[in-house]
Amino acid sequence: MKTILMTAALCGLALSTPAQAADNDIDALKAEAAGIVKTFAQELQGELLTAMKAAGPASAISVCNEKAPAIAAAHEAASGWSVARSSHKLRNTDNAPDAYTAAVIADFVAREEAGEVAKSLSQAEIVEEDGQRVFRFVKAIPTGQPCLNCHGGDDVKPEVVAKLAELYPDDAARGFTVDRMRGVFTLSKVLSE
Ligand code: HEC
C-alpha cells in the first residue's frame, strides 16, 4: 500500500477525494477540484524528493512508468472524477490532451508568453460534451527545482537521459526552467441533469 501511495503521488494521481460537491454549484465544484490538485501537488513534491533520495531519479522513473496506468484506472473508477496530467511538451503521448484541454493549454502558453506566471493560470467552467453537462477544471503546473532532475536541460544526469531515451523515444518534456509551465492538471466530472 505504501508503494501504491507513493507511486500515485509521484505519477500525479490523487487517491482520496473530499466530500462531493452539489452538481450545479460551480464554486463548490471548483473547490473540490482545487482540493484534489492541491493534495496531489503537495504529495508529489514530498514523495518525489523521498523517492529520488532513496534510489536516485533514474530508478524513480521506472516506478512511475510501470505502475501509473493501473492506479489511474482504479482511482477514476472510485471517485467519479477524471484526473490527468497533460502538457504542451509531452513525455508520454498517453498523456496527450483532449480537444478541450489542448485549447486551454494553448491559451495558457500564450498568456505565459505575454508575462503571466504559470502558478496563477487556471480555468473552470461547465461545458456540454456529447449531450452531457461536464465540469472542467484545468490548472497549470509550474516547474519546481526537483522537477529539473528529469525535465531540465543539459544538467539532467546521463543515467537519467539514457533511461528516458529507452522508455520515451519521443520525449519532448526537457529543457524546462524553474517557474515555467511544465504542464497542466486536467480534471473533469460529468454532472447529473
Ligand atoms: C524521477 C524523474 C521525474 C521527476 C523528478 C519529475 N518527473 Fe514529471 N515525468 C516523469 C516521467 C517518467 C513522466 C512520464 C510518466 C508517464 O509515463 O505517464 C513524467 C510526466 C510528467 C507530466 C505529464 C505530462 C507528460 O509530459 O507526459 C507532467 C505534467 C510532469 N511530469 C510534471 C512534473 C513536475 C511538475 C515535476 C516536479 C514537481 C516532475 N514532473 C518531476 C519523470 C519525472
Provide a short characterization of the protein structure.
With 193 residues, the protein is an alpha+beta fold. The chain has one domain (2-190). It has helices spanning 2-11, 26-55, 57-79, 99-113, 148-151, 158-167, and strands at 82-86, 122-129, 132-142, 181-190.
Give a verbal description of the structure.
- The chain is of the alpha+beta class.
- The protein has helices spanning 2-11, 26-55, 57-79, 99-113, 148-151, 158-167; strands spanning 82-86, 122-129, 132-142, 181-190.
- The protein is globular.
- The longest helix is centred in the N-terminal third of the chain and has 30 residues, at 26-55.
- It has a four-stranded antiparallel β-sheet, with helices on both faces.
- It has one domain (2-190).
- α1 crosses α2 (26-55).
- The model is unreliable at 1-18 (pLDDT under 50).
- It has six helices and four strands; from the N terminus they run αααβαββααβ.
- The structure holds heme C.
- Helical amount: 40-55%
Lateral arrangement of strands in the main beta sheet: 1-4-3-2
Strand content: 15-25%
Q: What is the count of structural domains?
A: 1
Radius of gyration: 17 Å
Question: Globular, elongated, flat, extended or rod-shaped: what is the shape?
Answer: globular
Please report the number of helical segments: 6
Order of helices and strands: HHHEHEEHHE
| Each distinct ligand | heme C
Low-confidence stretches: 1-18
Structural class: alpha+beta
Tell me the number of strands.
4
> What does the main sheet amount to?
4 strands, antiparallel
Distance between the termini: 37 Å
Mean pLDDT over the full residue set? 84
